[in-house]
Amino acid sequence: MHRSAEAGAHVRRVGSDVRAGELALAAGTVLGPPQIGLLAAIGRGSVKVRPARAWSSSPPAASSSSPASRWARPDPRLQQLRARRRRAGRRRPGLPGGAVADDAESLRATIEDQLIRADLIVTTGGVSVGAYDVVKEALTADGQVDFRKLAMQPGKPQGFGAIGAEQIPLLALPGNPVSSYVSFELFVRPAIRALMGVEDLHRPTVRAVLSADEALSSPAGRRQFLRGTYDPEAGTVTPVGGAGSHLIAALAHADCLLVVPEDVESVEPGSELEVVLLG
User: CB–CB of 185/227 below 8 Å?
Assistant: First the structure.
């Protein structure tokens, strides 16, 4: 079935995240997973950094790939997830992974190749209802992976299950950079830490007062996770950027997630919110 499309529908404008000439990251910024994802998103294959250890000498180059062209650039999702895995406490190197062709057979072969070595498999993208959502297509047939729509934003489409003879856990995350980031924090990080035998599985949370110029709106029936900055001395939290799941620049400048419950559609300035600390 075909239907007409309105001009601009489902199109993300160039510069809607970071405009040409706008400062993406200031000198001296500590590079964590969101910042590495932003650098990949704007096509920076490498940047000069200073090591965290004060006694190290010459500053090396932190490289995510070779210099990127406009249309072939480092994948911000992949760079973020690799950095997030390390931050979750997993010290053992991850197995080789990357982009897989939009083909169900290729994806199944790639996953089967990982099963003999992996403790946990994480995919990102291909879990919604689009024409090329091959993760869902490849993993639904045998019934081992369950795909659902969760009452949350971002990160509505999710998949989870256990595959192969050894029943290796698999988590299938959505493809948008912010969606995959939030999903990792809520689902993958706790799973990694549980496999490690760590007791504190989840990020710490606090209650903070909303500091904003206007009320926050939130879709009915969905728990929304907005990016923000937390001021522990003032006990306040300030939103950063919009709610779009592709706005990775806002994520790079955030240190927490504001949680708006699914039964709340508007939050006035001065109201108290739950805040997930990411630092």
Answer: no
pLDDT in tens, 28-64: 777 877 788 788 878 887 888 766 543 322 222 333 3
Please tell me the distance from the alpha carbon of residue 169 to that of residue 31, in angstroms, as a whole number: 30
Burial (CB count <10 Å: 0-12, 13-18, 19+), residue 97: middle
CB 162 within 8 A of CB 169: yes
Phi, psi (rounded to 5 degrees) for 22: -80, 145
Sheet strands (E) in 78-198: 121-124, 145-149, 152-153, 157-163, 168-173
Contacts of 31 (CB under 8 A, 6+ apart): 39, 47, 49, 62
Handedness of CA 239, 190, 252, 31 (dihedral sign): positive
Fill in the amino acid letter for 104.
A
Q: At what angle do helices 33-41 and 76-87 cross, to 10 degrees?
A: 170
Cα distance between residue 268 and residue 270, in whole Å = 6
Q: How confident is the model at residue 245 (pLDDT cuts 50, 70, 90)?
A: low
**Domains and their CATH numbers in the chain:** 24-74 (no CATH), 76-195 (3.40.980.10), 205-277 (2.40.340.10)
Q: 154: helix, coil or strand?
A: coil
CA distances from residue 172 to 101, 126, 148 in whole angstroms, order as listed: 16, 8, 10
